[in-house]
Design goal:
With 300 residues, the protein is of the alpha/beta class. It has one domain: Arginase, Chain A (3-Layer(aba) Sandwich), CATH 3.40.800.20. 43% of the residues lie in helices and 12% in strands. The protein contains ten helices and eight strands. The chain has an eight-stranded parallel β-sheet, sandwiched between helices. Strand 4, helix 7 and strand 5 form a beta-alpha-beta unit. Helix 1 crosses helix 10 (281-299) and helix 8 (204-222) packs parallel to helix 9 (248-264). The longest helix has 24 residues, at 85-108. 49% of the residues are buried. This is Histone deacetylase. Keywords: Hydrolase. It holds the Pfam family Hist_deacetyl. Belongs to the histone deacetylase family.
Length: 300
Amino acid sequence: MKVAFSPIYKYDLLPEGHRFPMEKYELLPQQLLYEGVITQRDFFHPKALTEEQILRTHTAEYWEKLKTGSLSRKEIRNTGFPFHESLVKRGRHIAHGTLECAYHAMKDGVSLNIAGGTHHAYADRGEGFCIFNDIVVAANELLYEQVAERIMVVDLDVHQGNGTAKIFEEESRVFTFSMHCEHNYPLQKEKSDLDIGLKDKTTDEEYLSILYKTLPKLIKEFDPQMIFFQSGVDVVATDKLGRLAMTREGCYQRDLFVFEQCKLHHIPVAVSMGGGYSHKINDIVAAHTNTYKAAKEIYF
């Protein structure tokens, strides 16, 4: 299976103070190779977004601020990172990686991006460790290139995909589904086509029961030609930003089900990793690795 990864994803290319939560992007590829989940041949190095592609999703004013490093202090604070041009460069490659994953998924059924899932970025601003909204950028490009007419975003990160929801608020060709912890960031939620807000300490049984009832119905009703899956592992109980009570095995079963549904209905699925902030880096990497194992089990 094709996996988007570039050396520019690595946290150690960024200055001190920019590295949280970057470390997993270096360790995850190593773990996937170590466990034999993928081989070196499966990796591809994504290109950078062009200016034209950026401007089909983000505003010209925001892009100009990123190019010139002229974000205000408040805007920088909202991104979660001290501003640095390497973050912009990195974001352009990550977002294009998700787009390239979509095209690979059209051939292979599934393709995954080692990074991505930057669903808090709005058209005119960044938020929550997100500079460009990679799923929105990729979906907009598929619509622009007329290779898909109906796209579904399945966002199972613990945090609502607020930027994604807002950008696609009036876009009938994209169905946004966000299942997240209700009393968690962002405090001000946007309106997805379907939001399911979960209570704190939601367990595997509760979570999976809701997903099993909901996703097949949505797929049947909307009949998407492409699914973008935000597979955040910040739903697990060990996550310091999560507030849910899922196990790593429950998260794995979640991913298996999404992939099973996509394959059953012959829908290509492009996967972005999303959040993962457990106290132990090994817990984060292991949970993300399970997403790749689930994809391999269903498709290969």
